[in-house]
TrEMBL record:
It catalyses: an N-acyl-L-alpha-aminoacyl-tRNA + H2O = an N-acyl-L-amino acid + a tRNA + H(+). The gene is PTRH2. Keywords: Coiled coil, Hydrolase. The keyword Disulfide bond does not apply. Residues 45-64 are annotated as: Disordered. Its EC number is 3.1.1.29. This is peptidyl-tRNA hydrolase. It comes from Symbiodinium necroappetens.
Amino acid sequence: MAGQAMRRLRHRSLLTVIRSYRRILRKELAAGLGSVRQIVREELDRESNASDTEEEEQDDEDEEEWKLIICVRHDLNMSVGKVAAQVGHAVHHSVTHSAWRDLKDWEESGSKKVTLKTESEEELQDLLEKARSKGLLAETIQDAGHTEVEPGTTTVLAIGPAPARRLDAVTGHLKPLPDRVQQIEKQNKKLLERAERLQKEVDEEKRKHKRLAKQFSAFRQYL
């Protein structure tokens, strides 16, 4: 009987300790949730205040086109696959470092991406500095150098996503990146057309030569 009484006492003591821990955990959890709620409220208030101060500008931006610009160094003569990989790195960086509101506006506008041509690293750096001076998200990509270019080579520059009018103020003078496959096809077409013209000229010269030969033969017979 004494043993059973001791076991009941220990059991009750254990239950009391468990209940005490539960009460403590509930209080700590409630305090933690309260802190989280406070942080969320402060963040929402901060965003709300920022939204109020920029309401007119934001309304204008919502109505216009958004896009992401990727400037590619054409002077490196990278292959189509290499360009695609570098552009992919640039887009990934822009998406992971942009504010969620900018991403939302860009996606709602169609997630437009534009590749433009640059001719040197100096030109790329100038665009980078100009974009950042205007408050735009901008970053260059450096290649690891495992395939076509030297390690650390700056290959592309991503600017945005942002409203088109802000991006055009930085990159509006640049031309679209040409498709190298189409370039080769155009060059081949030009070479083929030139070869056909030369062949026609050669054929015409042969006909002239035959006519002269006939005339000369007839002249000799006359003599």
